[in-house]
Amino acid sequence: CQTFADTELAPFYSKSSYGQTALTTTVTPLLRLPKTAAYYATAQTSGGVFTGDTDLRTDTLAAATAAGFDSSTFDRIMVVHSTFSSVPNTQVTYGGLGQFGGTFLWINAAFDFRVTAHELGHTYGLNHANLWKVADGNPISAAGASVEYKDYYDIMGGGPNDARLDFNPWYKSLLGWTNATQVKTISTTGSYRIYAYDHANSTAASNELVALKIAKDAGTDYWVSLRRNVTDNALLSHGAYIVWGYPTASGRSNLLNLTTPGGDYTDAPLAIGRGFSDPAGNVTIRVTGEGGTAPNYYLDVEVTLGAAAPFFAALGNSTSTVLANGTATFKISGAGNPAPAYQWQRMPAG
Q1: Against a cut of 0.70, is the pTM above it?
Q2: Would you list the DSSP string of 146-211?
Q3: Which of 126, 146, 225, 226 could tie 121 with a disulfide, CB 3.0–4.6 Å?
Q4: Hey, which residues does 216 pair with through a beta bridge?
């Protein structure tokens, strides 16, 4: 436990916060609590309200005090226990649980990077990183819905046990880990260069802009950034990672799928040469290029507020050879404000 905390958990939080958060962990000896696992997994009031979590917390703090530990000297307290999931009639079906904006964490036999770093994020006041799921082909459709956990690139999503994950820039802003040097609130049309934010050198002192914040409406902002740590996803490493953040409902986010609206998280980023428009928000965002060297990679992003000239980008192959009477498929994406209309034409041979 001590090795994990010192070599995985602490370095992650230090890097993600650009050195502004330090974790120093004390692991107690094994503590024996006064009740059985079956009790803590199933305890309820006469009205059917589950109390096992609360009772476990109370008994853990008492046992730690009896063992000579002063809980008031710690910012976070975590109890790690063997699994309650297999107890008959268990109410504990999670791997971990963190008090939202509080101090206590419960880890149900899942003491690994993903669960522990995620639950610590809840104690920092962060909700889940979700995906905006649509069914009409419009990535920002008002008819869409937030799907819990489905931004697998964010540690507050439900992704793999992978230390390359990170908090999104909206969350880092909420936690005070970024400042005005690193985040630009867009108020004028222009082209902007943003640098990869998911490495320890992206500090205010480096003078690197790591995110664009663009108002959609009074309750929603676009956050545009570049992730480069997850190198086995080329679109993520070479496209814009864009989420919605909610200033009036802090602590939650929604990843936008801008490549295959309605699909999953894997191809959500906006590829170079592509863009999209939000007519209601009067904003158009287009990725125009990339460059830089490790770790200071960058994307060039064009933001237009108000009317935007139409532009189109080919999707997949732009040429095709088929047999006579066969079918050739070509795809493009188009954006602009107002939304452009287009049609296909077949030119006669010769």
Answers
A1: yes
A2: EETT--TTBTTTT--S-TT-B--HHHHHHTT---TTTEEE--S-EEEEEE--SSTT--GGGT---E
A3: 126
A4: none
Q: Which two tokens stand for residue 27?
A: 């692991």
Per-residue pLDDT for 34 more than 80?
A: yes
Which residues, at least 6 apart from 241, have a Cβ–Cβ distance to it below 8 Å? 153, 168, 224, 225, 226, 227, 255, 268, 269
According to the model, what pLDDT value does residue 318 have? 61
pLDDT surpasses 90 at 116: yes
Q: Predicted confidence band at 343 (pLDDT cuts at 50, 70, 90)?
A: confident
Q: What is the DSSP string of 250-287?
A: TT-EEEE--SSTTS-GGG-SEETT-EEEETTTTEEEEE
CB atoms inside a 10 Å sphere around CB 281 = 17
- Encoded tokens for 310: 């139409």
Number of H helices, E strands in the chain: 7, 17
**Mean pLDDT calculated for residue range 27-40:** 96
CA distance 304 to 311: 12
Distance CA 151, CA 230 (A): 13
Q: How far apart are CA 311 and CA 276, in angstroms?
A: 9
In whole angstroms, give the CA distance from residue 37 to residue 44. Answer: 14
